[in-house]
């Protein structure tokens, strides 16, 4: 498997050359470089005996047929888009590994088909809405999503048409009742597996997420002429609250809370801030704990605002429930990892993945690969050939186990 693992890594680095930003890896929903990725992967899929298509939302789909035409199918998938200035493996590794598993079958047909899907969008970069690709499979691409606009004012539906696709055919992208399950290989994007010295992690579930926009409003004023006791400084209020966000998260087991962006108006060095708008991202495997934490943080924001003569308002941007992986499929994957000769470690994913969109519809399972240095969404993102080989070996065992289960 080591040779095939190195080929997987080499192909991921090759695909990283298809970018909107020379010298960096940036590839967003239905951008021009996505055509190059489709062309490269489509040709390779067809050489493996797969039939290929691009559906109405831009997902690349390669199907390796079963022995019988009416057989069910297993989906192996991940995403082909990236964050700005990304690494070479987030998302796309899972697609290339799916193709490598088909190649390892060496022409042998199973009693189920294998569909390898490269989702056109997962990161939410271009339109501010994530999972457009997998939402199409789930049938949840609605008119509100299609009307979302990017920074240039272009709508999602316009981007689809400009790519040469027909949004009227979106319903054809939905997964059918013949789907046995969904498998996603993905780098961990964190330091846990490396800290344990393990190549692989079996994902038991994906943490729920709350995303908010919290806006403190005070009164702008001259920085030199307004006494400290007469100020209504929105930024000072936001800063006090941000420190308490961190403090609450540290006191609550397994809770993570992040203020990742802060917009200040008028934003001048010699003007007291009249408004400060902060993002809030809260995640936990327990939805009850997550919701309680969000309520506490908003209550604290109100108290700070009241004491400082400010007002505060907030808007919910996301409320994604925690999503468990399928227990039976997870147990099968655990046995597959053991049979490959590697330790079993179960873990939760703090990051969102396409699996969370499809898990409510079909049995879903995820396998993490170690991220050296815990690095992701960064040019230094990497994988180890030995870890890819381990994941491929476990993947082949999983395919064989599924074959026996549906004999």
Describe what you observe in this structure:
- This protein is α+β, with helices and mostly antiparallel strands and 407 residues long.
- It has helices at residues 2-15, 32-47, 92-104, 132-138, 143-146, 156-162, 192-196, 234-251, 287-308, 327-339, 355-358, 385-405, and strands at residues 51-54, 60-64, 73-79, 113-119, 179-187, 200-206, 208-217, 221-222, 256-258, 262-265, 271-272, 275-284, 311-320, 323-324, 346-349, 364-369.
- A hairpin with a 5-residue loop joins strand 1 (51-54) and strand 2.
**How many β-strands, per DSSP?**
16
Elements, N to C (H/E): HHEEEHEHHHEHEEEHEEEEHEEHEHEH
Radius of gyration: 23 Å
Distance between the termini: 26 Å
- How much beta, percentage-wise? 15-25%
> If helices are DSSP runs of H or I spanning 4 or more residues, what is the number of helices?
12
What is the mean predicted local confidence, pLDDT? 96
Structural class: alpha+beta
Q: Estimate the global geometry from the Cα principal axes.
A: globular
Low-confidence stretches are none
Summarize the biggest pleated sheet.
9 strands, mixed
Helicity range: 25-40%
Give a topology summary.
Blueprint: H1 2-15, H2 32-47, E1 51-54, E2 60-64, E3 73-79, H3 92-104, E4 113-119, H4 132-138, H5 143-146, H6 156-162, E5 179-187, H7 192-196, E6 200-206, E7 208-217, E8 221-222, H8 234-251, E9 256-258, E10 262-265, E11 271-272, E12 275-284, H9 287-308, E13 311-320, E14 323-324, H10 327-339, E15 346-349, H11 355-358, E16 364-369, H12 385-405
Parallel strand pairs: 3-4, 3-5, 5-16, 6-15
Antiparallel strand pairs: 1-2, 2-4, 6-14, 6-16, 7-12, 7-13, 8-11, 9-12, 10-12
Helix pairs in contact: 1-3, 1-12, 3-12, 8-9, 10-12
